[in-house]
Amino acid sequence: MKADDLAIEYSDRNITAWGGMKLMKDLVDRCGIKDLLRSCDLPQPHSNRGYDPIDIIESFWTSIWIGASWFTHCSWLRFDTTLKEIFNWKEVPSQSTYSRFFSKFSLKRNTEVFPKIQRWFFEQLRFDNMTLDLDSSVMTRYGAQEGAMVGYNPQKRGRASHHPLIAFMAEMRMVAVRKNVERRPKASGRLLLFDVAEERYRYSTFVTDLDLPMQQIWNMYRDRGDAENRIKELKYDFGADSFRLKKFFATEASFRFIMIAYNLISLFRQMVLKEKNQATLSSIRFKCFALGSWISRHANQRTLKIALAREKRAWLDGLFDTAKTAHPPFQVSNE
Q1: What is the pTM of this model?
Q2: Which of 49, 69, 234, 252 has the fewest Cβ atoms surrounding its Cβ within 10 A?
Q3: Do 193 and 241 have their domain in common?
Q4: What residues form DSSP beta bridges with 125?
């Protein structure tokens, strides 16, 4: 062996790559959503050895937050004993457990459970006003999923798909903007939005109730019409188009639980990170969650040990303090 070769040794110590998920654990516990879930008509286990439905949902969210985009990826958690201990799970469900759980959702159960969760979520937020942005997206399907049909699919022509309509809360008054395509050839908008439109301009509109000059409204909103970016994040970071099952309402249930996972990350952005910009889950995952950690025990005291550069420790302590003290109603910034 050469002198500069790096030797390899193994350790039996249980270490997780996701010690920062303790932040999400604290936020989920503090916001009260698990108490709400217990009041919902969730599928219950048929035996004493069955999984608690709250643990199934929470481990599903956690799998997504650390990068899972298929049900098979959720089994990663089964081998991470430290992460299981952080969340106080006795065991993590297998792929088949998730499939059976979501397959128990029906039209009736979906229409009872998810509107209740959505109403609760908005009741926990304080905001002055809002704009509801609606956008649809093509979710390509490759198997024999119920409800999938051949229709508009620009990426996979002739392939069956689901086509959900997704609503995003932003912060109504209408402002029309036109951009000269000769001067700005890459300008966004539509060439023939109005009957009087001239082909050398592209047009777009903003709907708002803000009593501000039109120029100022345009400056505020031109960077905020990003529903398409949020949909891309849902697909690429949250696996919104990948967690699919044969039964339609099972797929819908998993999709809507992904929406809740997205909302909780949005809450994390606002309440814990206190960031006004829309940091993606992938950047949050790298910045906050991917922290090598292990649990030590001394005198009946468990301690989560996090490997982190000394200069970043005060910053992370601040995040933990915020996550542990956060409680509804949450003040949401509209700026």
Answers
A1: 0.80
A2: 49
A3: no
A4: 330
Same domain for 214 and 90, yes or no, is no
Two structure tokens written together for 33: 């959503």
Please say which residue of 186, 219, 252 terminates a domain: 219
Task: List, for residues 166-202, the tens digit of each pLDDT value.
Answer: 887 765 473 445 566 667 676 655 554 444 445 556 6
- Shared-domain flag, residues 38 and 95: yes
Query: Where in the sequence is the domain holding 318, given as residue range(s)?
Result: 15-124+233-331
* Same domain as 89, residue 34: yes
Cα–Cα distance, 212 to 200 (Å, whole number) = 28
Whether 155 is in a domain gets the answer no
In a domain, 250, yes or no: yes
pLDDT one-digit tens code per residue, 230-256 = 888 888 899 888 898 989 999 999 999
Report the length, in residues, of the chain.
335
Task: Count CB-CB contacts under 10 A for residue 116.
Answer: 15
Neighbours of 253 (CB within 10 A): 25
**And the tokens for 289?**
């969650």
112: Cα separation from own chain's centroid: 22
Phi (first) and psi of residue 180, to 5 degrees: -75, 120
The identity of residue 28, as a single letter, is: V
Same domain, 205 and 249: no
Give whole-number Cα distances, 204 to 47, 184, 188, 230, in Å. 57, 14, 8, 20
Domain count, the chain: 2
Whether 33 contacts 264, CB under 8 Å: yes
Q: Is residue 86 part of a domain?
A: yes
8 Å CB contact between 104 and 125: no
